[in-house]
């Protein structure tokens, strides 16, 4: 009896608990299903006005920007399809939709890391972009300013895929304007004497009370002579249209200062006046750069300068090859090095000026096929300036020892010859 009573109680308990357990399990399943449905629903794509917020943080990777540009044409195709089906849209609405499309396309593409420009990720981006653009085309609630801001900020980041935007180096590269004619020539006229006055140790030496460096003294005298002749040609010929044109006041003053005796020590001192002459040339140079001075590259302006150089080289050549002075006395051993270094100073500074002639008078020279002659003259002067013996010897030409005057005379004779041929070529 006891066992029957226990079985009856157990049966009643099962009858009571079973429906409640089943109901609880069903409720739990329903609740879990509802939670899954709620949290697994797709997140709506952010409207274009969130683009302003998205620009507060930099793009994650460069590859995302590249993928955005690849996906943009697909978004454009979808947008074009939507625009075709929307027959009620006006042309103004179509333009607005295009701007929204570009902005939303960049925002959606940059939010997802790119994997492959032709893979599934790009397809998903294109779909998101299409959805966002369609929404913008229906509402048109986004201001145009946000679209322009998003587009400009996204375009500021260069992408190797884009072919329409110029690289930053091309946009920021400075524009180099060619120098006016005559600037190189005047700079070359200034340079040799400036080096002797300002950059040479002990400065200008021919007017020193105690002369212990006669080699440098004669070298500086040769530089001065070329500077004088260049300045005279510049003042009298190259800067004027003809004999009736007025002198440039700065060139005329510079020409006068360079004529001061090189050995003048005081009242006036040679170096002080030469510096003033260089300052006058600097003033003329500044006027050339501003277009307030004239410089003519005609052949009749250049020929007098070349003739003057030819005469100077002829004098140097004679001093290098002569064996006796005018009174019949043999050339002194102490005069040999004076002739040598004077000629070297002439050749060094003349090569600098002739290089500037090649630069500024190139059109004139090419019109007469004279550039090669000038080139040979420059090379000859450079060879003469490059001879640097430790001791100047003047031995017999057949001697085992050197004759440095004759060594210097060879390139000087070549330079004089080519200048003579150049003058004839320009004169015809």
Unreliable parts = 43-163
Mean pLDDT: 76
What gross morphology would you assign?
elongated
Largest sheet: none
- Residues in β-strands, percent: under 5%
| Rounded Rg | 45 Å
- Counted up, domains total 2
User: How many individual helices?
Assistant: 16
Distance between the termini: 151 Å
Structural class: mainly alpha
SSE string, helices as H and strands as E: HHHHHHHHHHHHHHHH
Keywords: Membrane, Transmembrane, Transmembrane helix
Biased composition (Low complexity): 81-97
Biased composition (Polar residues): 51-74, 111-124, 139-156
Transmembrane segments: 21-40
Protein described:
With 428 residues, the protein is mainly α. It folds into two domains: 48-163, no CATH class; 183-427, no CATH class. 68% of the residues lie in helices and 0% in strands. The protein is built from 16 helices and no strands. The longest helix is centred in the first third of the chain and has 38 residues, at 2-39. It starts with a helix and ends with a helix.
């Amino acid at each position: 009896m006891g066992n029957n009573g226990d079985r009856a109680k157990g049966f009643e308990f099962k009858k009571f608990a079973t429906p409640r357990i089943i109901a609880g399990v069903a409720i739990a399943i329903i609740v879990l299903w509802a939670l899954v449905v709620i949290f697994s629903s797709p997140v709506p794509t952010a409207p274009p006005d969130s683009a302003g917020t998205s620009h507060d943080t930099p793009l994650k990777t460069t590859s995302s920007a590249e993928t955005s540009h690849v996906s943009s044409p697909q978004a454009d195709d979808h947008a074009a399809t939507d625009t075709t089906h929307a027959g009620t849209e006006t042309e103004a609405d179509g333009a607005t939709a295009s701007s929204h499309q570009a902005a939303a396309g960049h925002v959606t593409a940059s939010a997802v890391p790119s994997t492959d420009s032709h893979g599934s990720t790009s397809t998903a981006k294109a779909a998101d972009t299409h959805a966002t653009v369609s929404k913008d085309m229906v509402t048109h609630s986004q201001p145009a300013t946000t679209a322009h801001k998003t587009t400009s900020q996204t375009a500021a980041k260069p992408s190797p895929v884009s072919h329409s935007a110029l690289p930053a180096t091309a946009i920021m590269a400075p524009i180099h304007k060619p120098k006016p004619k005559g600037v190189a020539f005047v700079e070359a006229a200034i340079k040799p004497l400036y080096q002797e006055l300002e950059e040479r140790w002990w400065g200008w030496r021919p007017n020193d009370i105690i002369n212990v460096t006669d080699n440098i003294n004669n070298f500086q005298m040769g530089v001065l002579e070329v500077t004088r002749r260049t300045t005279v040609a510049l003042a009298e010929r190259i800067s004027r249209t003809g004999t009736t044109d007025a002198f440039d006041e700065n060139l005329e003053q510079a020409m006068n200062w360079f004529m001061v005796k090189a050995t003048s020590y005081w009242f006036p001192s040679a170096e002080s006046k030469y510096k003033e002459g260089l300052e006058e040339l600097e003033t003329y140079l500044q006027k050339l750069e501003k277009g307030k001075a004239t410089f003519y590259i005609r052949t009749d302006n250049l020929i007098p300068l070349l003739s003057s150089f030819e005469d100077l080289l002829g004098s140097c050549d004679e001093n290098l090859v002569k064996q006796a002075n005018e009174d019949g006395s043999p050339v002194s051993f102490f005069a040999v090095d004076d002739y040598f270094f004077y000629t070297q100073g002439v050749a060094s500074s003349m090569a600098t000026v002739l290089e500037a002639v090649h630069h500024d008078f190139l059109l004139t020279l090419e019109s007469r096929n004279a550039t090669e002659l000038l080139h040979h003259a420059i090379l000859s002067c450079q060879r003469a300036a490059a001879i640097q013996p430790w001791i100047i010897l003047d031995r017999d030409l057949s001697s085992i020892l050197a004759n440095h005057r004759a060594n210097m005379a060879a390139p000087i004779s070549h330079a004089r010859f080519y200048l003579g041929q150049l003058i004839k070529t320009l004169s015809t």
